[in-house]
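This follows on from our talk about sequence and fold. Can you supply me with one protein entry, sequence and fold together? Could you add the entry underneath, on a fresh line?
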Amino acid sequence: MDRSNPHLQTFQERGFPHADYPTGWFQVGWSDAFARGQVVAETYFGQDLVLYRTDPDDANAAGRIVALDAYCPHMGAHLAYGGSVEGDCLRCPYHGWSWDDAGRNAEIPYGERGSVNASTRSWPVREVSGIVFLWHAADGSAPSWDPPRMPEADAADFYRPYPWATHREPMHMHPQFAAENFPDLAHMRYVHRWAEIPEISLWQEDGPVLQVDYDGLVTTPKGPVRVATANTAYGVGLNVNRVLHGLRSTTLGAFTPIDQTRSEGFITVWVAKRDKDSTEPDGLARGIAAANTRELFGPDADRRVWEHQRYREHPLAVGYEARYTRAFRTWTRQFYPEPALISTGSS
């Protein structure tokens, strides 16, 4: 195996100093993608998982999404392949053992439930604004903050984004590679072709939430246009960008570790309506969503850098770059419970 290929190297082999996956909320899908009774296999944080939507009940008319470790504690069958939803439980396809939404054994068809003390891990899941979030903490602790609520999701003057303004795709990069775009405004000039390097107008930290606002000139076919944006990071896996003037849009870029070499990238774009009575997105709205998706997943933008990047723990930052990079990395330390793994020698 050619370990010089960055696509085959672990995050640590590419210079990232933390061994544990970061703590926080991470996107694992969209609410509308989970039909009632659907069972889905996923892999995140190096763990095979099974996600399913429970049957509706008095408290949840649409049911709830549950995430469990994928393998039945009885004899190891993967619960997503043939498993069936019954109420809030998932029944194993191999021997019919049933597991509830908390991961507890709910039934052994040919024996007494209390005859074994068995359970599987249940992961905290929240559905907010049409996004499915999963909580990960290296120490197993419960959620200590809430995932973001997107006002645009409930606003009548914004189009609903799913499925036309959404996309997901695995990428060979750590979520922090993307998150570090927040303090790195010089890349807007050279990667995203802004006419100038934007200037930060607000840097505000509030626990796990960081807001960074900036504005600058964007190159367009009709000439430079000044754009003001408000940008909010929720941990290192959720990055929200809001264009404040003109035809408003809000983009959620989310990055969830699959294993120690890849993350799943998600994009969701809410675009304001030009016609408040419109129900179907017009050509301009679709163009904005497509352009934002290209900027994230296209071969000539951020992805090209992230998938081939070697992380510099001690970058050769200059001027404002040094100040904001240092501030950002200090802020992100709260999401990694252990000290830096080793000195990577990438200084």
Q: What stands out?
A: The chain has five helices and 18 strands. Confidence is low (pLDDT under 50) at residues 342-347.
